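Here is the promised in-class demo. Please do not try to memorize the tokens; focus on the logic of going from shape to residues.
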């Protein structure tokens, strides 16, 4: 194959398991085929960022990784991205021991795959001189094709002609595409978004909506704004709509009093921000300049760009996309392996039996689960408390009070082990010039505490803050909110919509964490808060509601406290009765895929359709399916894998959106196909993991307006117990799917 020019961002996106065939359906990636080289670039890439050249001399099948490593493509890609990041560190590249690397002049050879590869495939790569450091993957070697570095060094090496010429154009094209998608909703509302507006806001005016909404929604919309309000309600109960109406109301009533308030609506994702912005335009008949609608990190970027932008040469490793999260997990896995090989012997004796067993385990699933738990501990506990390695940091960590939702660490010895791994993790990020979003937020917070911000917030701050999907914000993110208010003499007035069930474990933590955190700022925000509750669901039918309630009852008891819980016994649906959700059980994984393809065929003409994948570990398989469904050209298929994706809002009345359930939060579709549900049987021990999976299932099911179909297959364990119980109670209609 011709050489490929790509980027760290593109490698990471491909490493999420996105099938190379699905690049055409991805809103994040762009593939450009040239005469001498091909390009794959990702949205968010910079023209001045490092370029990655993959020479592909031996490739016949695989697009990026060596042929023969297709089955571990994701981990190979992830390691490639990590190599390029490490190459950016000043003072030369340092690789973890388990990569078993060799160096010869500027050439580096290392194991291509993190998992065991019987052929022992190695890359021969070379960081090029320059700033940033471009990297070339010249070739690969394996047991059958051994090639020493010193011999390879004698072979003349030549980069493809013109390889750096079209790169700029490709990056500009992919970024221009995203800008269009984001900006278009504001500038070209009628044309581009009519079908969705009509389903969300029905084309009604504010007065029409005010007359039509339920009593509990109206009470919230009309409530005084002298203190903060928490609006609780299950999925689809009209929280977003009520927040939107209240924001409009406050602006128009202030205008009539001759003042012009600055109002901010904060969301967790770009897609929801764009949706709310469109709803405002539609309800008001025109944009309202006093209202800003943005994801939190975007606000941080406009307020104090020096803390968010890449000026220090550091870039952000994000949790706001599937690829960012995956990259973090991969990094923690590497750090864990290295820790086991070195320091673990000195720590082992002081660790509890449970933690010891988890760290000692060689099972890939156990290691992954541990990496996941550690990532939560690092982000939502250690990072959220602004503890970064340094003098006194370990002691502060040991003294933190622990709450039930946190990773059970039984002894100070356990905490010391976790802290040691955390320090290594931060060191390794540092070496690769990476920052976590937590670190950025902590820096931003210290800026927001300065006098200079205190002065500028009078002009740049907001009078009223609305926060949708409050349950998805980490404690740290929530602290930032305080400083965004304009008037420092009163507590910020924040109107937040929340449904704790929609929050996968790490963010669940965010909600419950308020009870355990000592930060006075956080307490102030939440102390004097009026409570409103919505108990009518407007999105979906009574049949879907019964299934959603069933999932709610399956949650392990998690004491979130009265202020956060929703009383599901009173919840009703205002929609007309519809079909009972169906469970289609196939004999094999391939059978399940044909069942899904058949359902897409049948349901596509009837409206917007989503395929929500509950367990993201299974995303890879379904992304390949999405690619095949898109290939037929009969369907418009888009994949959504980050908070930044707005493709799901594209201007189509029809279309299939495929994505991990967590990125579909806040959105709705006529029909939702749900797949990738792992077993969370009664013997399931990790309660936090069970809550995470149930909340993703709850989220997936509750995106549907009219129809739900759930797909399982016997290869992956067949129907899981939570679904079996739903069938036994008549909430799901079980059908046999394809058996081959
Ligand atoms: N009182 C109402 N009458 C009719 N339709 C309504 C009413 N309230 C909300 N809706 C509609 O119900 C749907 C769900 O509303 P919305 O997205 O605001 O719910 P939500 O509580 O924010 O959901 P989620 O938490 O799942 O994101 C939307 O289509 C909205 O237009």
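The designed amino acids, position by position:
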């Amino acid at each position: 194959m011709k050489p490929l020019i790509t980027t760290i961002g593109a490698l990471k996106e491909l490493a999420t398991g996105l099938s190379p065939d699905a690049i055409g359906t991805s809103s994040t990636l762009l593939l450009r085929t040239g005469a001498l080289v091909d390009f794959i670039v990702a949205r968010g890439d910079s023209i001045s960022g490092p370029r990655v050249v993959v020479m592909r001399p031996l490739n016949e099948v695989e697009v990026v990784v060596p042929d023969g490593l297709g089955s571990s493509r994701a981990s190979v890609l992830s390691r490639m991205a990590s190599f390029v990041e490490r190459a950016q560190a000043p003072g030369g590249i340092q690789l973890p021991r388990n990569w078993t690397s060799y160096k010869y002049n500027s050439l580096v050879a290392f194991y291509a795959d993190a998992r065991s590869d019987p052929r022992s495939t190695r890359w021969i790569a070379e960081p090029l001189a320059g700033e940033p450091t471009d990297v070339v993957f010249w070739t690969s070697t394996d047991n059958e094709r051994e090639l020493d570095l010193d011999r390879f060094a004698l072979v003349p090496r030549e980069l493809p002609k013109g390889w750096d010429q079209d790169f700029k154009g490709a990056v500009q094209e992919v970024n221009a595409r995203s800008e269009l998608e984001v900006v278009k909703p504001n500038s070209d509302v009628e044309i581009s978004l009519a079908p969705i507006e009509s389903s969300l806001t029905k084309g009604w005016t504010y007065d029409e909506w005010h007359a039509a909404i339920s009593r509990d929604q109206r009470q919230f919309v009309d409530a005084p704004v002298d203190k903060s309000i928490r609006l609780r309600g299950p999925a689809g109960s009209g929280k977003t709509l009520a927040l939107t109406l209240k924001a409009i109301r406050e602006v128009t009533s202030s205008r009539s009093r001759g003042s012009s308030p600055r109002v901010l609506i904060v969301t967790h994702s770009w897609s929801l921000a764009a949706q709310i912005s469109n709803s405002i335009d539609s309800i008001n008949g025109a944009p309202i300049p006093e209202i800003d609608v943005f994801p939190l990190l975007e606000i941080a970027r406009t307020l104090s760009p020096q803390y968010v932008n890449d000026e220090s040469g550091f870039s952000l490793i994000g949790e706001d996309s599937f690829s960012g999260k995956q990259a973090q997990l991969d990094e923690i896995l590497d750090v864990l392996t290295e820790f086991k090989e070195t320091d673990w012997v000195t720590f082992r004796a002081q660790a509890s039996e449970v933690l010891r067993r988890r760290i000692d385990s060689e099972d890939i699933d156990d290691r992954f689960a541990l990496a996941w738990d550690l990532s939560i501990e690092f982000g939502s506990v250690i990072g959220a408390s602004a503890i970064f390695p340094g003098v006194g940091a370990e002691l502060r960590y040991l003294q933190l009070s622990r709450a039930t939702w946190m990773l059970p660490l039984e002894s100070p010895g356990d905490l010391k082990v976790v802290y040691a791994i955390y320090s290594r993790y931060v060191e390794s990020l540092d070496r690769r010039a990476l920052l976590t979003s937590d670190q950025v937020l902590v820096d931003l917070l210290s800026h927001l505490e300065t006098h200079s911000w205190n002065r500028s917030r009078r002009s740049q701050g907001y009078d009223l803050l609305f926060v949708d999907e409050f349950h998805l914000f980490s404690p740290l993110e929530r602290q930032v909110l305080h400083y965004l208010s304009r008037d420092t003499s009163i507590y910020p007035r924040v109107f937040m919509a929340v449904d704790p069930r929609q929050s996968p474990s790490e963010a669940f933590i965010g909600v419950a964490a308020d009870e355990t955190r000592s930060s006075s700022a956080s307490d102030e925000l939440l102390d004097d808060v009026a409570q409103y509750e919505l108990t009518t669901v407007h999105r979906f039918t009574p049949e879907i509601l019964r299934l959603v309630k069933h999932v709610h009852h399956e949650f392990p008891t998690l004491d979130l406290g009265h202020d956060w819980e929703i009383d599901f016994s009173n919840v009703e649906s205002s929609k007309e009765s519809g079909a009972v959700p169906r469970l289609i059980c196939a004999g094999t994984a391939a059978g399940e895929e044909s069942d899904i393809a058949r359902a897409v065929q049948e349901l596509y003409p009837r409206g917007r359709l989503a395929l929500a994948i509950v367990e993201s570990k299974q995303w890879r398989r379904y992304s390949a399916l999405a690619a095949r469904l898109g290939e037929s050209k009969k369907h418009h298929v888009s994949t959504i894998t980050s908070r930044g994706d707005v493709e799901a809002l594209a201007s189509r009345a029809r279309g299939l959106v495929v994505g991990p359930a967590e990125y579909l939060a806040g959105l709705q579709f006529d029909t939702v196909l749900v797949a990738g549900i792992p077993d969370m049987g009664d013997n399931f021990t990790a309660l936090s993991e069970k809550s995470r999976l149930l909340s993703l299932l709850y989220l997936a099911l509750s995106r549907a307006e009219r129809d739900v179909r759930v797909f399982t297959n016997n290869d992956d364990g067949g129907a899981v117990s939570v679904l079996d119980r739903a069938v036994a109670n008549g909430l799901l209609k079980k059908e046999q799917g394809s058996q081959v």
